[in-house]
Amino acid sequence: MRSRLASALALALVLVSSSASAQSTPLGGRIADLVRAAALGDGVGLVLVEGDREIYALAADTPRNPASNQKLVTAATALIELGPDHRLHTRLFGRIEDGRVADLVLRGEGDPALEHVHLWELADALADRGVRAVDRIWVDGSYFDDQILPPAFEQQPNETAAFRAAVGAVAVDQSSFVLRVMPGNAVGATTAVRLAGSGYFEVDNGMTTTEGGAPNVIASQRALPDGRMQLVLRGTMPLGLLGVSYRRRIEHPLVHAGHAMVDALDRAGIRGARRVALGRGPDGLALLADHESPPLAQLLHPVGKDSDNFYAEMILKAIGARRATPATSARGAEVCQSVLERAGVPRGAATIVNGSGLFEGNRIAPRHLVQLLGYVYQDPRVRAEYLAHLAIGGVDGTLRRRFVDLPGGVIVRAKTGTLNDAISLSGYVIAGGERERVVRFGYLANGIRGKQGAARQLIDDVVRAVAEELAR
């Protein structure tokens, strides 16, 4: 009973202090009314600032789970530490002797945008140099450490969806694969299966073709001792259907990349044993081909606009590599802490375990995010790129269906966040014109399981109130 009374008293004091500061302006009073009406309890933290003036604050200094608002920290750190033009390379090394490469090394720096087509281009470059056979493919992931599963991702071990993808210094198609299942050529026949990098998969296909009905695909997967993946398929597929596709996470990005490289060599007409191995390979090999990623500013668009976890975790390790290799998530998190400290956040006030905000572990206060947003906005080297990577209300990314009815001349650029027990939104409300006005806001709602819709509606109403005020 005492603990309940103490908690209730603490909440009352927070509400009184926040509403006392909020009532000093009409906008602050309106926001206070919205917060009271939402009645979401003591799990809500909110702060809004224009310039140096605080418009409203509620539990602004209490660290909470930011969900994908953690990506705001990752993106800011990447731009500040690596620079908007930073690029990541994926290279092939080897020695060509009579059209044959005994040891071909595929070496990466963690390009999150690497796709099969880029391996095709590397293979074509080999063919153009007269390579006709490759004996062994070494996949060198030593730019990153061996922890392919980002911190906190172990909390959901049975999740096969692509949003929980593993990371590696060489990772193809965001460490995911597309399973394409098509009917056989007759009723009762085994279904057809298409997989890129097919050598990576050991497929047990027990699916059959039926005359009619709906597709029924039951797929289970597990890692094999050699790093490849076993895929067990059961169910039915109706005759006459073109087929269905599913995207899932792969188990080991480096092994998967090696077999994707086998496919690329095959496509380019390069034969040989092409055995896949992990490691740095022999020393002293020459550079044979090089693929360069888009600039970092462009790589951040999936992070801010689409909330891509894989991109965020790969970029966090790339940040860590700036300090030392092999890069670790922990080293990347340390660099993020140093940027937060420069933004005015006391060292240790925030807890960073991964770069995406997925699962439990990260803790940061709404005021910390607003301080970071202000720090980046004042830095002319990165401000434009940082703003550009954020979703625009009513236009694109995770905000394309929100804030569609804002007053003319006002836009919202912000980062969303969603977990089972957390809703977040932090960013900027910007009014253009002769005298630009910018309101920075940070909103973290925890403990709202079953109330996610109400938590999202509250911050949408708050942002809309700010936009209407700026439009006056």
Task: Write up this protein.
The chain is α+β, with helices and mostly antiparallel strands. The protein folds into two domains: 2-84 and 297-470, Beta-lactamase (3-Layer(aba) Sandwich); 89-292, D-tyrosyl-trna(Tyr) Deacylase, Chain: A, CATH 3.50.80.20. Helices cover 31% and strands 26% of the residues. The chain has twelve helices and 18 strands. It has helices at 2-22, 26-38, 70-82, 116-128, 253-267, 296-299, 301-304, 309-321, 329-342, 366-377, 383-389, 452-470, and strands spanning 44-50, 53-58, 89-94, 96-97, 100-108, 133-140, 176-182, 192-194, 201-210, 216-223, 229-238, 244-249, 275-278, 286-292, 391-392, 410-419, 422-431, 437-446. The strands form four sheets. Strands 2-1-18-17-16-15 form a six-stranded antiparallel sheet, with helices on both faces. Helix 3 runs parallel beside helix 10. It is globular. The chain starts with a helix and ends with a helix.
Task: Sum this structure up briefly.
Strand 5, helix 4 (116-128) and strand 6 (133-140) form a beta-alpha-beta unit. The strands form 4 sheets. A 6-stranded antiparallel β-sheet has the order 2-1-18-17-16-15, with helices on both faces. Strands 3, 4, 5, 6, 13 and 14 form a 6-stranded mixed β-sheet that branches. By secondary structure, it is of the alpha+beta class.
